[in-house]
Design a protein that fits this description.
There is one protein chain. By secondary structure, this protein is α+β, with helices and mostly antiparallel strands. It folds into 2 domains: 103 residues, no CATH class; 110 residues, Aminopeptidase, CATH 3.40.630. The protein is 28% helix and 29% strand. The protein contains 7 helices and 11 strands. The protein has a 9-stranded mixed sheet with strand order 4-3-11-5-10-9-8-7-6, sandwiched between helices. A two-stranded antiparallel ribbon has the order 1-2. Strand 1 and strand 2 form a beta hairpin. The protein is globular, with a radius of gyration of 19 Å.
């Protein structure tokens, strides 16, 4: 079973899953194998309240202003929740450096049991003999062009634990540990365009969630508000909605 986390604590746990934080609570970097740079401002919401995470390189006065506005933000507990201070956040950050990205998102947590409305599919997971054979084949022959186009240029991009759906021996969809800590993880999902709309993303994600390496961890799923297809995966799996998010870089 997965640990029961109170709804009010889920945004903070997801933020700790997504980002490595400094001792003072500032965002240091993404919690991912590639150590990518995190957003300058992150808001994670729920019906019970929000969390605010500010990157360490944001100036002190700007950070204080962002924190004050964030504390005044109504709970972002609905799918259509939009921060009331969005314009002010952008203005404060733009005064320091141009805003490169502003993305509204949605977040869910996995229940103990998932829905089972998935197509019959061949699943292969990491840390299994079948998974080791697949890795060996990919290392020898290279990543298929359609899989490399998704960003998986070599086997090192398959962040374990992972689960793939095979279609006639080829990779159709991949679910992997986009973020991983000792107590939690967040999935990333990618599907080859030719196989989208068939339920393969949901099947891969369900397989990922049942991986033994994730047993006892709190598992998260998130996507942008604009990614309707990804939201359908969350609905098909029966994930529990947490709230809306905002990332500004």
């Amino acid at each position: 079973m997965r640990p029961r986390v109170e709804d009010r604590d889920l945004p903070a746990l997801e933020a700790a899953t997504c980002f490595v934080l400094t001792d003072s609570g500032r965002t240091l970097r993404n919690q991912a194998p590639d150590h990518g740079v995190g957003p300058r401002l992150y808001l994670g919401g729920s019906a019970s309240g929000n969390v605010v995470r500010i990157r360490q390189d944001v100036g002190g006065e700007a950070a204080q202003a962002l924190e004050r506005l964030g504390a005044d933000e109504p709970p972002l507990g609905e799918a259509d929740s939009t921060p009331v201070h969005l314009g002010a956040y952008l203005e404060i950050l733009a005064a320091e450096a141009p805003v490169e990205r502003c993305e509204a998102g949605l977040a869910w947590v996995f229940p103990d049991r998932l829905g089972h409305d998935f197509p019959a599919a061949v699943l292969v997971s990491s840390h299994t003999p079948e998974g080791d054979r697949l890795l060996g084949q990919l290392a020898e022959k290279g990543m298929p062009t359609d899989v490399a186009a998704l960003g998986f240029v070599d086997v090192g991009e398959l962040w374990a634990p992972w689960c793939v759906v095979l279609h006639e021996g080829g990779i159709a969809s991949i679910a992997f540990a986009a973020r991983l800590t000792g107590v939690s993880a967040e999935t990333g999902v990618a599907t080859v365009p030719a196989f989208r709309g068939r339920g393969y993303a949901a099947a891969a994600t369900a397989g990922w969630a049942s991986h033994p390496a994730l047993r006892g961890k709190t598992l998260f799923y998130s996507t942008s508000r604009a990614n309707v297809s990804s939201q359908r995966v969350a609905a098909r799996l029966g994930l529990r909605f947490i709230g809306a998010t905002l990332s500004i870089s």
